[in-house]
Amino acid sequence: MPNDRVKDTPKPPLWKRALRRAVTLTGTASVVAMAAGAVWIGSATLATRAAAVDAPPPAPITTVAAMRVSPSNAMTVTRAFHGQVEAAQTVSLGFEQSGRLNVLDVDEGDRVEAGQVLARLDTRILMAERARLMASRDALDAQAELSRRTTDRQKELRNRGFASDQAVDNTALNLAALQAQIAEVDAAITQVEVQLSQTELLAPFDGLVGVRHVDPGAILSVGAPVLDIREDSAPLFRVGIDPKLAATISEKTATIMLDGTRYDATFVGFRADLDAQTRTRTALFEIETTDPVYLSSGTLTLQGQLEQAGYAVPLRALRNGVRGLWTVTVLQAEEDDLYSAQAAAVEVLQVEGDTAFVRGTLQGDAMIVPDGTHRLVPGDQVRVTGGN
C-alpha cells in the first residue's frame, strides 16, 4: 500500500505573528484597565455612602463599685482537725469470782453513783464455807480455853511440887498450837469474806450504764464483762495535731463542732508520744457540756496567725489567671474622676470563708473591683461608686 505523507504547513510570515501578539497584549491591558476603573468607582461610591451616615456614639463609661485594700503583715486563719469524743473514764465491769449471776439491778442508760451495788452473784457456797470455818474457830476457841486453864493448873502444881516442868511445857505448847490454828482459821474466814465482797459488783464512779452484756441467771467466768460504765463528767475530745502547732494551743480554749452544735473546750494536755501512723501528737480537750455526746466524732477549730505580708480581698474579686495564678482588677486614677481598669496577678495564700489572703503585684493601698469583674478588660475606663 502506498504511504500517505502529510505535507508540512507553511509558517506565516514574521510580521503577521508580531501583529497578532501586539493585538493580544493590547486586549489584555484594556481588560485590566477596565477592572481597575471598576474597583476605583466602587470604592469611591462606598466612601461617599459611608460619609453620608452618622458616626456611632462613643461607648458608655461603665460604673463599678470599688473598695480599698491595704497591705497586712499577718492574717488570722482557722484550722480544723477531726477527732473523737470519749468519756473521761470508761470501764467494763466484771466479777473477780466465777458463779451464777443472781441479781442485775441496772439497765442500759441508767445513771449510777459511786459505790452503788449493780449486780450480785449466788453466794450460797461461800456462805456455807464461812459457816464451816466459824464453827471450826469456835471449836478451836474451846480447846484453847481448856489448854489455857490446864496450863494455869500445871503451873500452880509445879510451884507446889506436884508437877514437872515437862507437864507445864506440854500444856503451854498445846495452847500455842491451838492459837496458831485459830489464826489460820481466821485467815480462811477473811478470805471467804473477801470472796463474798467480790460477789457484789459496785460502780467505781458516778456515770451512765453503757452496754449490758449478760442477764440474770448466766454462769460467769472470772472477769467476764457484765456492764460498761462511762463516767458522768465532762467528756474528752481526742484529736491528732501537727507537732508544729503544739506550742500554739497550749493553755488556750478552743471550739469543737459536734453534730452541728458548737461547744467550748479547754485544752488538757498532749500525750507524750508521737502517733507512729499519722505522725501527729494526740491532744486532749475537755468539752464544757453535760450533753450525752459520747463516742461521737467532731471537728476542733483553732485560731492561728499566718505570718505573711499580703492583702485580704473578697473571694469573688478573684479571676483565673495563667500558670496557676489569679488576677484582681485594680483601678488607677485618671483625670475627670475616671479610672483605668488594670489586672494585677496574685497568689492565694489562705482562704477564710469568703475572704482570700493574697500576695502579688499589688502595691501600697489599692482600689480593687470586688464585683462584676467579668464586664471589664484591662484598659477600660470606669467611673467609681461606693469606693471606701
Question: What key attributes describe this structure?
Answer:
rod-shaped; disordered N terminus; 388 residues; single chain; 6-stranded antiparallel β-barrel; alpha+beta; 22 strands; conserved putative lor/sdh protein from methanococcus maripaludis s2 fold
Short description:
The chain has 388 residues and is α+β, with helices and mostly antiparallel strands. It has helices at residues 14-52, 124-160, 165-197, and strands at 62-65, 67-69, 72-86, 90-94, 99-104, 111-112, 117-121, 200-202, 207-212, 219-220, 225-231, 236-241, 253-258, 261-274, 281-287, 297-314, 318-320, 326-333, 339-352, 355-360, 366-368, 381-385. Helices cover 28% and strands 38% of the residues.
Overall description:
The chain is α+β, with helices and mostly antiparallel strands. It folds into four domains: 12-52; 64-74 and 308-385, conserved putative lor/sdh protein from methanococcus maripaludis s2 fold (Beta Barrel); 80-88 and 229-306, Efflux pump adaptor protein, beta barrel domain (Elongation Factor Tu (Ef-tu), domain 3), CATH 2.40.30.170; 123-198, Helix Hairpins (Orthogonal Bundle), CATH 1.10.287. The chain is 28% helix and 38% strand. It has three helices and 22 strands. It has helices spanning 14-52, 124-160, 165-197, and strands at residues 62-65, 67-69, 72-86, 90-94, 99-104, 111-112, 117-121, 200-202, 207-212, 219-220, 225-231, 236-241, 253-258, 261-274, 281-287, 297-314, 318-320, 326-333, 339-352, 355-360, 366-368, 381-385. A six-stranded antiparallel barrel has the order 3-12-15-14-13-16. It has a four-stranded antiparallel sheet with strand order 4-11-9-6, with no helix packed on it. Strands 8-7-5-10 form a four-stranded antiparallel sheet, with no helix packed on it. Strand 14 and strand 15 (281-287) form a beta hairpin. Helix 2 (124-160) packs antiparallel against helix 3. The longest helix has 39 residues, at 14-52. The radius of gyration is 53 Å and the shape is rod-shaped. Mean pLDDT is 80; it is low at 1-7.
